[in-house]
Every structure is written in structure tokens, then in C-alpha cells.
Amino acid sequence: MHLLDIVEIVGSLLILAAFAAAQLRKLDAHSVPYLVLNIGGAGILAVIAASQQSWGFLLLEGTWTIVSAISLAARFTRRGDRPAPPPAHQA
Q1: Do the beta carbons of residue 65 and residue 39 sit within 8 Å?
Q2: What confidence tier does 78 reach under pLDDT thresholds 50, 70, 90?
Q3: What does the alpha-carbon distance between residue 51 and residue 18 come to, in Å, rounded to a whole number?
């Protein structure tokens, strides 16, 4: 087994771990850990796909990486995710 094969397996395992955890309700599909696992795994696979000129695989993994990265960025910039403050108590 070559080093590239090991890296490819690691990338796949990151995505699969996120997917399995979401299916088992251990991770929310919008959580930071889920998105980071997807960015890492899909990013690794996208780089490998590009280096091997595997255009369909690059389209899939590149899109997966970009969508996950946009979702992660939105988690940090979205104001609506924060709970609303309790209403002011009126006497």
C-alpha cells in the first residue's frame, strides 16, 4: 500500500465518520465537528482527484468541500443562531 492510498483512506474515513455519527444521532449535520470532518475528508479527496485528473470525482469532492466550508463559515457569521435574550421583566 502506498502513502497516497493511506491518505485517500483517511479522507474517506473522515467523511464516513461524520456520516455515521449523523445517522446515529451523535452529531448534528450542521454542527462544527460534522462540517470540519467533511471539509477535511472531502478536501483530501478533492486534492487527490485533481492530481489524478479524475474530473467527476473532483466535481463531487470539490463541491462537498465548498458547500461544507460555506456552511461552516455561516455558523460563525450567522446572528440568528444565537438564542434570543429573555424578555425584559416588566413590573
Answers
A1: yes
A2: confident
A3: 25
| SS3 category, 89 | coil
Give the residue ranges of DSSP H helices in 1-91. 3-23, 32-51, 55-77
Vertex 30 angle, CA 79 and 42, to 5°:
120
Question: Rounded CA gap, 16 and 35, in Å?
Answer: 12
Angle at 73 between CA 85 and CA 59, to 5 degrees: 145
Measure the CA–CA gap between 49 and 60, rounded to whole angstroms: 10
For residue 85, the 8-state DSSP code is P
Q: For residue 79, what pLDDT band results from cuts at 50, 70 and 90?
A: low
